[in-house]
Request: fold
Amino acid sequence: MRANEKQQPRPAPFDPEHLYTSRPFVLRDPAQKRTIADSPARTIEDKAADDGTEPEKLIVCRQCRNVITRPEERIEIQGAHQHTFANPQGIVFEIGCFGFAQGCGFVGPLTDEFTWFKGYSWRVAVCGACITHLGWLFHSPGGDSFCGLILDRLRQPQ
Reply:
């Protein structure tokens, strides 16, 4: 590395100690995926059977069909629901903003490095069932928060 080059921070390795969800996780074996303890993943069929919600009116994880949020949770941040951003590695994400995503877990501490929304810190959001990266939780010092979810990793009602 040259003397005048700034070293780019490396992403923190996945640390199961910093995985936060609304439901507890059990790690059966470090080589296996995590599973939800005492509360199985909620697929669209489960949710529909429990409360009469029509399955096509829920937003689910594309990978495992766990219920992530509802269309009513769509919100506008900085004048729009949908945003396109690139991370420092140049990977482009199209995200939608949601006020609440009960099907997500959140990984790692809050950081304000490379934030896409001025005044907000972020942490990674994952599916609470299959741990697929779904986006980010954005949190302001004033206590406001929202989820920016990667749209092509979700199945949404038409």
